[in-house]
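Notes continue from the previous slide.

Worked example: a multi-chain complex. Inputs as given:
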Amino acid sequence: MQVLVSKENRQIKMARKLQEKKHRDQKGLFLIEGQRAVQELFIRPDLIETLFVSDNLMEVYEGDVQRLHIKQAYQVKADLMKYLCATETPQGIAAIARKPVWSPDKLLQPDSTVFFLDRIADPGNLGTIIRTAWALGIGVLLLSSNSTDPFSPKAVRASMGGIVKIPVYQAVSTSMIRELKEKGYQVLAADSKGNKLLYDINFNSGKSLIIFGSEAHGMSGDYSYMVDAWVKIPLQQEADSLNIAVAHGIFSSEIRRQRLYG
Amino acid sequence: MQVLVSKENRQIKMARKLQEKKHRDQKGLFLIEGQRAVQELFIRPDLIETLFVSDNLMEVYEGDVQRLHIKQAYQVKADLMKYLCATETPQGIAAIARKPVWSPDKLLQPDSTVFFLDRIADPGNLGTIIRTAWALGIGVLLLSSNSTDPFSPKAVRASMGGIVKIPVYQAVSTSMIRELKEKGYQVLAADSKGNKLLYDINFNSGKSLIIFGSEAHGMSGDYSYMVDAWVKIPLQQEADSLNIAVAHGIFSSEIRRQRLYG
């Protein structure tokens, strides 16, 4: 494996640049850091553009590099790894990856569940939601415009590699939501003041599109008229909300339970 | 309200010090920041030691200060607020609060649910768990020693004020867990490789103590011999775990559901 030593190297500079959304958007690339996340990427080797391995992990990953025919694999020293990663304590491996492209067919399967996140702001929350969606095998994720970027270092890290496993569609418009409703999706809004209990919703009877509003501002008025039911997780009277990633996890688990038990 | 202008003021210096665990432990005090969290504190005015309000929020909070007889309330300028808060963009209000003290009686109620977190490391995760426990009204929280401090600024912020609402017992020992088991708690371990499905556990038949292992290292061997059942949330085959705060939320929601539906 070639050894990179200079901050001026083209690959190193590219990795650094990918910490900014502008460059991720321009190039269609993003940075994946850490052993666990990169191991998920190894299941999609077609997405790997460049791999960086620190000295002490060379023995661990040399076999993978050969097996997966990764052409651009480089050995780097710990300080250079730290320079190219967004994490303060990088785990010794990182990769430049191509953003996965998902066909819209996923949306048209019967009894599919779709989560629509309206202006989600926190990358950690978004990454956690992606991790949950992948782990529970429930749902395709749609993001409105003005949502945080799922390919940012923080979101990618919280997704634990899930970002390359499940379809996340960005910049989804109101008209797309309307089209899904016309195609037979029941439109549910997660809302702590809703009038239906989550546990009373039948998720086995067809396709569901579940809207979560932003952490700070709730759901935009653009969607209210399409909502078939406002659904709440029953909270204590004086409490007013859950963390959005926790609420998403609870919805997903209830759907999973209903699928298992009919 | 007295106006504070100097970084050398005793109250300001105390607030700054409380960003460090050492001082929180010594004084039995901690810092609460932000409008929503401080409003929760107003429901426990006995815990308020000192209140700091920035210029622009004086009108909003003057009434509360009088109504609650808060003696040490000070007006501070935005830059001083930023200096005393741990957040980068403080929301204009902060308080020094006494740590709430909870009687152990809470643990001895019939059909109570207790979560035991073994060496939880991330303050954001711990705060989110506290927020969920409060919002769903489920559970008392026990923390092993070597867990992250629930009174750290990050944990307090993520708890959204929940830290003053629900009992969180720290430095809980193995012998305490054993004692609860002897008192009739069923001991469940959350484990993605468990042999029982969460949805098959009966949470209405008695008291449950649910153990979550640390994010990175899982559960310590000290507890395994006490476990009555290893319980999993059913995941996709290739996925191996959920975020701990999401998993805790899913367990809590299932308990809530069973209590509602019997």
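Summary box: Chain B has two domains: 2-98, 104-261. Chain B touches chain A through 37 residues (CB under 8 Å).
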